[in-house]
Amino acid sequence: MSEAYFPVGPGLGLEENFLSLDDILMSQEKLPGRAESTLPRLAFALGQGAGTGDSIPEGSNLEIPLWLAKGLHDSKRRIISVELPKIYKEAWRTVFSADANVVDLHKMGPYYYGFGSQLLNFVNPENPEIAQTILQASISTNRFRRIMDSSQNAYNEDTSALVARLDELERALFRAGQKGLNDFQCWEKGQASQITASSLVQNYGKRKFTDMDG
Length: 214
Hints:
Elements: H1 21-26, E1 30-35, E2 61-65, H2 66-72, E3 80-82, H3 90-99, H4 105-108, H5 112-119, H6 127-140, H7 143-152, H8 160-163, H9 168-188, H10 199-213
Antiparallel strand pairs: 1-2, 1-3
Protein name: DNA replication complex GINS protein PSF3
Keywords: DNA replication, Nucleus
Family: Belongs to the GINS3/PSF3 family.
């Protein structure tokens, strides 16, 4: 019997993949912002009005879902302005630079990497520093390597405490590593006829061929 849903990986860039449940959930994360002009009939949708026809006055502070902030943000028309969430500000970037391995990313933001990448859609002088911090947190500190090493050395063990500090992308990597290890163990014991490529590898291959065709 085939699966009812085949997981689709996140977009991992400036644009979401709306076939991905992770990206759909990530797009609901809220950004602090400010109304630079009156926003007609949006008060109720943003929890600031009693009726569907209420408007948000100019100058109001907002908590805007990412998907709506991207739709309203226009540097020329100045409809809204967007502020950085605290975990992407300079103080937290300093913490990540010191040692990203000690940070509980899931507590600070379950979609730290994906959400941070989406922030680059908004005009902000700190964008280069944000991009560098995201890259450093994942690669320069060997955080991803430690995650994969842990996934390969925790066979048949309780890993709940281990993954509690990971963001959703890191958890997906950990699960992929665990699945690969489990599949190999089954194959080694003669319980599987062949080893198949992980869905992450298959999706990457499909994306690569699509880019080549374009």
